[in-house]
């Protein structure tokens, strides 16, 4: 269901146009996937308002988005549902100049993958500046998640490909005047297990705090078990590739030494 609100004057009627102030969308469904040219399928849906006009406020509720791995209709997908949000446009004064900004607020969840999430965005297109922040609760990290995500997204999770756990995090990503984005993620891992070719045994019962920044992943106060061994460590991993260098400070009790 779509509800349009606005003014329809005689001039608008003669020119076959509507001066919209608000668009309300209820129960919409959308498929999102990477295309062959490196863009995303939804980019063509982004409206291009006329110069000197204010785009309408967009409100949506009960929306569903299918994030597909590719453009094939039967491709693996993650479904985000119960999406509710607002996208609004306004003008602010910065350094004695008026500039347009876009504010967005979205909440939702994904059954079996994300318990809930909230995302807030602030974009100033004329200044080439933007910021996105939010939080994710009860994110289930598993091999199936990596296999379902589009490669454009899953490549950033390569360092965590052997990790299965429940996670929660708060994040912030910013870019000022077109500079490369800076991001920070602070979170917690719970009830995890980690299998990696660099480790002789499976790690399980993992609990840890973590911080992700542009060039480093920090694990803080990590505790885990590997057989009879009890492990506590802090680590800095310099990069997000599988063979990125790392520095580890660890304390291990009841470690059994063998040929592995």
Characterise the protein shown here.
With 260 residues, the chain is mostly beta strands. 6% of the residues lie in helices and 57% in strands.
Give the SSE layout.
Elements: E1 2-7, H1 10-14, E2 19-26, E3 29-32, E4 57-68, E5 77-94, E6 97-110, E7 114-124, E8 129-141, H2 143-148, H3 151-154, E9 163-175, E10 182-194, E11 203-212, E12 217-226, E13 229-237, E14 246-253
Average pLDDT confidence is 85
Instruction: Tell me roughly what share of residues is in helical segments.
Output: under 10%
CA-based shape: elongated
Tell me the series of helices and strands, N- to C-terminal. EHEEEEEEEHHEEEEEE
- Helix and strand content put the structural class at mainly beta
Radius of gyration: 23 Å
Main traits of this protein?
14-stranded mixed sheet; elongated
Short description, anyone?
The chain has helices at residues 10-14, 143-148, 151-154; strands spanning 2-7, 19-26, 29-32, 57-68, 77-94, 97-110, 114-124, 129-141, 163-175, 182-194, 203-212, 217-226, 229-237, 246-253. The protein is mostly beta strands. A hairpin with an 8-residue loop joins strand 4 (57-68) and strand 5.
């Amino acid at each position: 269901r779509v509800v349009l609100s606005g003014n329809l004057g005689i001039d608008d009627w003669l020119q076959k146009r509507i001066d919209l102030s608000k668009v309300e969308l209820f129960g919409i469904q959308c498929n999102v996937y990477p295309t062959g040219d490196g863009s995303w399928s939804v980019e063509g849906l982004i409206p291009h308002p006329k110069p000197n006009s204010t785009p309408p406020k967009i409100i949506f509720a009960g929306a569903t988005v299918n994030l597909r791995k590719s453009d094939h209709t039967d491709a693996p997908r993650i479904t985000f549902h119960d999406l509710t949000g607002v996208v609004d446009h306004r003008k602010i004064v910065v350094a004695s100049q008026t500039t347009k900004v876009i504010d967005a607020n979205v909440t939702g969840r994904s059954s079996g993958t994300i318990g809930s999430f909230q995302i807030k965005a602030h974009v100033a297109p004329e200044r080439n500046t933007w910021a996105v922040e939010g939080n994710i609760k009860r994110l289930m990290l598993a091999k199936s998640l990596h296999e379902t995500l589009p490669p454009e997204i899953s490549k950033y999770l390569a360092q965590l490909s052997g990790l299965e756990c429940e996670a929660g995090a708060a994040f912030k990503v910013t870019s000022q005047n077109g500079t490369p984005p800076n991001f920070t993620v602070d979170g917690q891992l719970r009830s995890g297990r980690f299998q990696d070719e660099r480790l002789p045994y499976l790690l399980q019962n993992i609990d840890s705090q973590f911080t992700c920044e542009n060039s480093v992943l920090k694990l803080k106060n990590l505790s885990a078990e590997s057989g009879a061994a009890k492990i506590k460590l802090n680590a800095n991993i310099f990069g997000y590739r599988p063979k990125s260098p790392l520095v580890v400070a660890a304390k291990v009790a009841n470690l059994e030494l063998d040929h592995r």
